[in-house]
Write the structure tokens for this entry.
Amino acid sequence: MDLVCHLQPDPNKVYTMKLQSLPTKFSCSAITAVVVACFYFSTLMWDINGSDLRYAVDIGEYQVAMSLWGTVHPTGTPLYMMLGSPVVTMLDYVGVAPTAGASLFSLFWAVGSVILVVMILLKMSVPPVLAAGFGVVIGLTKNMWIHASIAEVYSLWIFLLLLALYIALKLEGGWSDKMGWILALVAGLGCAHHRLFAPMLPVLAVWLWPLMPRGNNLIRWGVIAIAMFAVGFLPYLDIIRRASNGSQWIYGDPNSWEGFWSIFWAKEASGLQGLPTDIDELISAAYKFVQIVNEEFLWSGILLVVF
């Protein structure tokens, strides 16, 4: 009997172990978000853009169009505008200038992206403290930091891409038709927001193909998934609505079919789009890619990410 009593768990010790398990997943994500938000806020663009850097090419257009509920250059980034204009307007009511409000809108998505980085790493069983550290490091890379402090669409694009990755990881742990349809919706929103999301589609397809249902169930799931993907493009209706309402800042002619599809397919930028035409162009593009990655991470950072 004495031996049995000694083997009984001590509730106080269990409680102590739970306290020692901190920091929790939530606290790691929250701490990481606060840290990167402070850095982003310290360099926030509060005034009208006056920079001639490549990062700042379209900032002035977004600052004005968001505050005037207008539209922007192809492909129109409808989701960014549809969500951003109400935020900028509400912030203006409480005394935040529209120029700063547009930057704060991007900051919000960038912080959300960093939280998703931490959540993805935790999902991959990375220890919480290490996941938080990586979240801060990735959040403070130059590209992330810049796009968190200016009125640009890429912080929302990064958020959608990371959200798709996180959902895919959850599906890898156990397939769910409904979760798969949510992923299709996120992918549609991502592609509608910025076409640079499209290369992610085959990655997701190859990744999740072994987990998908088979036979008639796959056909049924696929039809609904395609419909959900198409729903992601509905924000384009907001572009037409804004043009019909007579906004003071409308790019092109979204009210005509020709003008709408020109914006949708970015026809005016068709000369910048296309696959490499020969091996020299492919090598040149690959070299430029390596240069950009090196500029962002340095070789030490690249080795760390590979590790």
Q: What stands out?
A: Residues 1-22 have pLDDT under 50 and may be disordered. The radius of gyration is 23 Å. Residues 20-200+215-265 form one domain. Residues 279-306 form the longest helix (28 residues).
